[in-house]
Design brief:
Number of strands: 29
Largest sheet: 8 strands, antiparallel
Number of helices: 17
Structural class: alpha+beta
Oligomer: single chain
Radius of gyration: 26 Å
Length: 666
Amino acid sequence: MHLRDALNDYNQHRGDRTRVPGERRTTTGRFSGDGGRLVHVETDGSIRDFSYPLVGLAGIARSRFGVRPADGADADVTWFDAGATQRWCDGTALVVTDHETAYGRVVQYDLTLDDVHVTHFDASAAGRSLEVVACVGFAPDGRDTRVGQLHHGDAVEVYHAEETDYLASATGFEAVRGVAFGGFDELLDRTPAEYPRGGSATPDAHPLSGDVVCVVPTDAGAATLATLLTTRADRPREAALDAVRAAARDRDRASLERVADRRGPPTVDPDLPHADALAADLRVLSSLSGRTGLRVAGPDFDPYYAHSGGYGYSWFRDDSEISRFLLEADRHFDLGLDDWHARSAAVYRETQLDDGTWPHRVWPFDATLAPGWANARLEAGDGVDYQADQTGSVAAFLAAADGDGRETLERALDGLDDGLAADGRPVTCQNAWEDTTGRFAHTAATFLEAYSALAATGMDGVADRAAARAERVYDALDDLWVDDRGVYALREYGGDHERAGDLDGRCDSATLALASAHRAYARVGDLDDRRLDRLVSHVETVVAELTRDTAAVAGLVRYEGDEWRRREQEREKIWTVSTAWGAHAAATLAAIFADRGDGRADRLAATARDLLALVLPGGPLCLDSGYLPEQVFDDGTPDSATPLGWPHALRLATVALMDEYGLLER
C-alpha cells in the first residue's frame, strides 16, 4: 500500500467509529496462497498482493474489475462491487466470487500458484457478449513512482530496478494503456478519489507508473488474466513472458479446480470433529507461510505503522507456538504435517543466535533480521529490550520435535539459563504483548514449559540440568501469587519502575499459558495439590474477569486496562487469541484432572467448550471465511490482522486435545 492509497482510505474512513483510517483491511474477502505469493481477493473481486514478507516481491498494490458490452466501445463499465458473494471451491484455496451485474451474472475464480496468480472470469451466464475491464496497479520494488511499462501485445511488463511484474491475457487485449498519477492537488484533496482515475485512452500511453488499464475480450464468455512476480536476475524477460502467457492460456475454470484440488494444505478427513474449522486452520497457516517455512503473524494491514508495529514478519514466539500446536494436533489427528515440522525445526536451528537465544523478528522470505525493537541481545545496553518468552517457546517446540538437534538444544538451555534470575524467575524483559517491561508470569510459563520439554528428552547433559531448572521455576511461581484475587500476577514490576518489586495483580490472558506449562512439568515433576487448586482458581478467575459479552459478540479481552486500538470504544476489545487461549487452558486443566480422576475435569471441560464455541465457524468471533481476526469491537466489527495465525493454531490444538480426552461432547 502506498501513500496515495493510504490517504484515500484515510479520506474515506477518518470519522469512522471502528475503522482505523489509512489501512488496507482484510477483514472481508479471502486469501489465495500456499507457501508463495499471498494474494487477497476482496468481495468486490479486486486483488492485492500481501506477498513481500513471504517472497520478497511487492506485486499488485491496487486493482479493480468490471464488465461492459462487447458491441459498444463507449458503453458504461459496470464495476464489480462489494455486494458479491464469495466462497471456497470444495474446501480448496480456489476463491470463487459471484458478481451480479447489470448485464448478468459473472463468476470470478482466483488461485495463487507459487509466483503466479490467475484470475478467470466466466460471463457465459450473461445475456449478451461482454468484455472484461481490468485495472491493475503494480508496485515493483515497493515503488509507485519511477516505474516503467513495456507492452508486449498480449502481455505487459512493469518494472523498476530488480523486481519485474507481468500481466497477460489468454485472449489478448482489445486496448491497454498506462495511467499516470495526479499532482499534489489531487494527492492532498480530501475527497476520496476514484480508481482508475481518468486519462488518455491512447493504447500506447506509457506513463511512469505501475497502473495498467486494459479491455479483455471474452471467448465463449470466458477470459483469463495471469500475473507473475519475479526479478530480472531470477527470470529473463522471454522466460517470464512465456510463463505468464502459459498461465493465462492454460488455466481455465476446470484447470483451476483440478490444480487447486491437488495443491494446498493437507486434506482434512471430513469425519474428524469440527473438520471445517481444522481445514480452515491449515489453509490459513499454509497461506501465511514463506519460502523458509516461517510464517507472518498476519497480513500486514498497516503499512505505515500508524497504529501498530507491523504484522508482516515472523516472531519466534508466534511461529514456534504455532509449530508446537501443529505438532500436538498432528500427533493426534495424523494430519501429515511431517514436512512442516521438519522445515520449522531447520529454520529455528539456522536463526538461533550464538548465545542460544532468538532475535525479535525476521523476514519469512530469507530468515534475515527484520526491523524490530526487542533486539537487546544484539546490541549494547541493559538487556531489558528482549522478549525472553520467544526463546522459551522455540526451545519447547524443538525439544518436542527435533530429535537430532543436540547442539541447538544445549545452546537454548544456555540462553534460558542466562535469562533466569537467582530467585528462579526470568529477569526483567519485554512481555508477549510487546507493550510493557517487567518480570512476567507468561515469560515464566514459557520457561517452565521449555525446561520441562528439555527434561523430557532424556538427553545426556541436557535433561537433568533442565529438570532442575524446571523445579526452580515451578517453586518460584509462588512469588507471583495474588491471594486476594486468586490469580497469578501479570508481572512483578521491574527494577526501573517506581513500584519495583511490587506485583501487578491485573488479569492477563497471556498468563493462561501456565496451564500447558504445568501439564508439561507434570511429565518430569510432581504437581502438588495446592498448585492444582491455584491453577483452577487462576484460569477460572482470569476467564471470568476478562470475559466481554455484548449484544453482538462475546469473548475474552487481552488484559485488564488494555487501551490499544479502541477508537471510540470505552472498554477493552475482545481478542480471538485470548479467547482461544482460554479454551485451550481450560481444556488443558481438564486433561490434567481427567488423568487424575478428579471431578473438576467436567467443570473445566464445560468452560473450554463454551469458549471454543466462540471461535468455531458459526461463532461470533469467526468470520464467514472461517478466518479469525485479531480483535473485535463490541458491535461485532472485526479489526486488525485478519487472519491471525496464532488463534488458528490454538483452535486446532484445542479441538485435538479435547477430542483426545473425549471432552467435546457434554
